[in-house]
Amino acid sequence: MGTTRKWETIKTYEDIFFDYFDGIGKITINRERYRNAFRPTTVNEMSDAFRICREDQRINVVVLTGAGDKAFCSGGDQTVKGKGGYIDKDGIPRLNILEVQRQIRSLPKPVIAMVNGYAIGGGHVLHVVCDISIASENAIFGQTGPKVGSFDAGLGSSYLASIIGQKKAREIWFMCRQYSAAEALEMGLVNKVVPFDQLEDEVVAWAQKMQEHSPLALRMLKLGLNAELDGQVGLQEFAGNATLLYYLTEEAQEGKNAFLEKRKPDFKKYPKFP
Ligand code: S0N
Fold this sequence. Notes:
Its cofactor is hydrogencarbonate. Substrate binds at residues 35, 74-78, 86, 118-122, 144, 150, 247, 262. Pathway: Quinol/quinone metabolism; 1,4-dihydroxy-2-naphthoate biosynthesis; 1,4-dihydroxy-2-naphthoate from chorismate: step 6/7; Quinol/quinone metabolism; menaquinone biosynthesis. With 274 residues, this protein is of the alpha/beta class. The protein has 2 domains: 8-212, 2-enoyl-CoA Hydratase, Chain A, domain 1 (Alpha-Beta Complex); 215-261, Lyase 2-enoyl-coa Hydratase, Chain  A, domain 2, CATH 1.10.12.10. Helix content is 44%, strand content 20%. The chain contains 10 helices and 14 strands. The protein has a 7-stranded mixed sheet with strand order 1-2-3-4-9-11-14, with helices on both faces. Strands 5-10-12-13 form a 4-stranded mixed sheet. The protein has a 3-stranded antiparallel sheet with strand order 6-7-8, with no helix packed on it. β2 (16-21) and β3 (24-29) form a beta hairpin. Residues 34-35, 37, 70-71, 74-79, 86, 95, 97-98, 118, 120-122, 125, 144-145, 148, 150, 152, 156 line the site of o-succinylbenzoyl-N-coenzyme A.
């Protein structure tokens, strides 16, 4: 069996667990009875937890997974799918999983999908948008959209194609087949496959290795890799982070200090790196 860790609860929710251990924030979809399908409540809670992961200075790496040994996530809860989206207690149809996809992508910390079973439909897209996917040998991957009356023509298709290639992405969506963990590894859809009882140990080891490295370097690499594919929005995110780095320099502080001290700034003294 894998190592038993003492995860500490960060916040209590209805549909998810949100735990902390050694620099890692772990978000677990806890709807095992429904193969961890998400309803709007689940997605709202995930969004809140990802927002906390962004702010919490203790958290360096985020892990997303599902409860139990059968599913990572089986996508949108089909029992609450109505006209215009997924309908929760408030009666309003929502497609709020798209917001969580964007949060994962723009979170300036690595996000690892710990794929512990079925990653299907919108659940498959969730692992696709994570930075790294580590799967157990029993994991099964696939899209069902055209079979069940939905599709994700956004990141779920275009980003998928950038990972595994256009032909394979089209096959996955047009054929709605299921793929084993070994096939997923072969097509570059996941980074590593391990026996189920070693999954958490493996994910924690990857997270610990990443934590040995410069968080700013990881942040800029993630944003740069995103920016290539994200057009103006990617450029905006990348530029925002360049601004962050600039604000850390004495040169930028000279501009602010001169303004506050009502004097002319002296930028000449700063090096012009060749
Ligand atoms: C996951 C599958 C393959 C597992 O099969 P298995 O092991 O044979 O178990 P089952 O007996 O089928 O399931 C056990 C119980 O769990 C229920 N259940 C499973 N999945 C769901 C689900 N998605 N919604 C609700 N219930 C689910 C079963 O009904 C069963 O219950 P009981 O015991 O009462 O019979 C298999 O379960 C499967 O294929 N599931 C459905 C997968 C699927 O089609 N998901 C939806 C795909 N679409 C989306 O996710 C769209 C959402 C999205 O990402 C999106 C993207 C872009 C724009 C908008 C959206 C958006 O938010 O809509």
